[in-house]
Amino acid sequence: MAEVQAIKKHETIQLIGHLLEMRCSKQMADIWNIGLNLALRISDLLAIQFDDIQGERLIVKEMKTGKQANIKLNHKVLMHIQDVRAEYPQHIYLFQSFRNQQSKNIKPRPLTRRAVTKAFALVGEELKLALGTHSMRKTRGYHLYQNTKDIGRVMKMLRHSSEGVTLRYIGITQDDVDKDFVELEI
């Protein structure tokens, strides 16, 4: 599996959302738009149940780390969630699978990671980008770092314990550090 990177241009971020909706489904575009704003791993994002949303907060236990994520939802995410809820009031999961929905004996399940990976890869191929499910989390971290230059805030948002891991994760390379030394003359 190819390593995915943060999407650095805002126009490309918007284009990805548009292409996901056009080529795949509105649900895939919602995953992209909501995922960018929550910075969760895909397993945690897909497992969100409407019961996990309490007012303007999302409270979930991360599967990988066991850490609790308590995220204040921004306006854009709240609007997307309200739209999904209005369209599918009977759903348990925010990103519920539509497979076997006619069968009464099958318990509702979230959309699979595999389906999302396939949709993202399709759009990534079209744009010649290594686009994957982790792109949302990395993109959020990258843009927070660019806006604040505060690696501590990015670490806290991503719930990382090492600055080095976070810098590599969001795609800050030695070339970026070298450029900062050259461009900032005191």
Automatic annotation (TrEMBL):
Q: Show where the Tyr recombinase domain sits.
A: 2-182
Note whether NAD occurs among the keywords. no
Q: Which PROSITE patterns match?
A: TYR_RECOMBINASE (PS51898)
Q: Which residues form a coiled coil?
A: none
Name any one Pfam family assigned in the record: Phage_integrase
Q: Which UniProt keywords apply?
A: DNA integration, DNA recombination
The domain of life for this entry's organism is Bacteria
Residues annotated as transmembrane: none
Indicate whether Lipoprotein appears among the record's keywords: no
Protein name listed in UniProt:
Site-specific integrase
